[in-house]
């Protein structure tokens, strides 16, 4: 078994597309800026994040037509230099909720939300720095 992706169901596809591509700097697979589906990949690693229009999935599972409430996901991205990355993404319009700050003696983190309210955690693994 292999994890193919984490998929987020969103209602404002275009805003989320811009966030993951233009703010976080992830690479879109096809350039489908208005959906209903797009996969994003970091420059390294094999994991991916995908967006899917919530209305499209509601045609399959009717309960998804209800308005999403509460935090239902946390997307985690590892970066090499958390301070530099946070500087870059805030200059692109990201608003940090927390950090950069130590979470443990092995990791620094920062948190933000995408346009749909999904939490994004940025991690810098201190053990990799030597």
UniProtKB/TrEMBL annotation:
Keyword terms, alphabetized: Metal-binding
PROSITE patterns the record matches: VOC (PS51819)
UniProt keyword Metal-binding, yes or no: yes
Keyword Lipid biosynthesis included in the entry's annotation: no
Membrane-spanning parts: none
Domain VOC: residue ranges: 2-125
PANTHER family: METHYLMALONYL-COA EPIMERASE, RING-CLEAVING DIOXYGENASE-RELATED
Protein's name in the database: VOC family protein
Species this protein is from: Streptomyces cinerochromogenes
């Amino acid at each position: 078994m292999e994890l193919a992706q984490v998929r987020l169901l969103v209602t404002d596809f275009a805003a989320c597309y811009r966030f993951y591509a233009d703010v976080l700097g992830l690479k879109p697979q096809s350039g489908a800026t208005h959906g209903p589906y797009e996969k994003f990949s970091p420059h390294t690693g094999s994991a991916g994040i995908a967006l899917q229009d919530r209305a499209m999935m509601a045609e399959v599972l009717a309960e998804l037509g209800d308005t999403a409430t509460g935090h239902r996901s946390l997307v985690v991205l590892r970066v090499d230099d958390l301070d530099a990355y946070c500087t870059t993404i805030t200059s692109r319009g990201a608003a940090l909720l927390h950090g950069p700050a130590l979470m443990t003696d092995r990791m620094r983190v920062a948190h933000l939300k995408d346009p749909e309210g999904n939490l994004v955690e940025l991690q810098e693994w201190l053990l990799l720095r030597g």
